[in-house]
Amino acid sequence: MLSLTRLKKFCWLGYGIVLLNGILFAYDFEACKQKAMFSMERVNNTYGIAVKRLGNTTESETLTPSKVALFVYSPKSAPKGYKILKHDPFLGMYLLESKSELLPISLRAIHKEILEDEMASILPLEGVSGKIQTRMQSPIDYATLNTPTFPNSLISTVCDHIYGIGIGKNEFIEKDYLERFIHSDSIYYGDIGVRVFQNNDDKVEVNLIDPFFPANPFVYGDEIMMINGEAIPNVAHFNRVVFDLKEREIVPVRISRNGTVMELQVRVDKRRGGMLLKEDFLGRVGIEINSDFVITSVAPYAKNGFERLKVGDKVLRVNQQAVPKGYDAIIHLLGRYPDKTQKWLISRDDFQFFINVNQKQPIQTQESIIQGLLNESNAFSL
Asked: When comparing pLDDT for 32 and 355, which is higher?
């Protein structure tokens, strides 16, 4: 309930708080919707929100409409008909050059004292109000209201203070994460070579290992307790900490492995896939596969045995283990031998033969594939 002093102030400012028999009955965000029109531009079937002026702006011009960068959350398709200034393919966020002159919004950080305030998802012609339900935990663990949010809406109090941008369902993005995207020089998320889940003991457990991540020290079942000195109580916290790690820095990771606490050292790499993108574990070594472990692409930069593969080769066994079906299952198998030489049984043109991949040491022999096929020790006819 608002205090009488705040209530009188809001009514005086014209924010439309409705009273019935002297009792607060409802909030009217009409003034917020009208103000939103000055900072929003129709973009295809949604809105773009003015978040940053383009070009140099003097202090006297900050209250004057101008061409701006528009923020648009569009995870399924790229906005059409606009110049794209920046795109985050992991999360589906865009900055576009506006076509009209607008006033950029001013974002505020969420503080404890406003958590109980009425908060609305605002568009120029629509609005729905509720309260903050959860805070944002990482770039992919969004804040929520206890009511649905409109995609690309302003998350605002009745005072026109803006605390985020709605993205649909009941979710919204807070100030810090928006500004990370808006002001960053490049799109970057850190990676330590594993994917995790919250296990039945409420621990953060490794359930997928990037098999060719350099010097990957993890094994399946490792429970991650701490990264770079910060405790990891849940997957959202894992995401936040890992995504912010700097590329190539070496960080300590405390784990529990089979009940034994251990300290590992991991060199951070940049995230290559996942979130909205397909996971790209094999792009690191220059190949692509389908769900049957048939090679579909070999890049010119492939080396360490991978360059010996050809499109159409089918991998039958890895280190004497039969290959499962499905991309995730294949990566799970390869992840049992992280950053180690692997012996693959290949089927090509009615022949089967072995090759070693991820072999970091210089290969001693110069034998060609054909010579390998003719070697009785590693080839036989189908």
From this structure: 355
Tokens standing for residue 74: 């569009």
Q: Among all chains, which residue has been given the structure tokens 């009217």?
A: 28
CA 110 from chain center: how many Å? Answer: 22
CB-CB contact of 58 with 80 (8 Å)? no
Identify the sign of the CA torsion 321, 322, 324, 325: positive
> Which pLDDT score, from 0 to 100, does residue 359 have?
86
The Cα-based distances of 178 to 82, 172, 339 in angstroms read: 20, 10, 35
**End-to-end Cα, the chain, rounded Å:** 79
pLDDT tops 80 at residue 374: no
H/E stretch holding 336: none
Query: Residue 22: is its pLDDT beyond 60?
Result: no
* Element spanning 138, H or E: none
Whole-number average pLDDT of the chain:
88
Task: Give the C-alpha separation, 204 to 206, whole Å.
Answer: 7
Handedness of CA 266, 272, 276, 282 (dihedral sign): negative
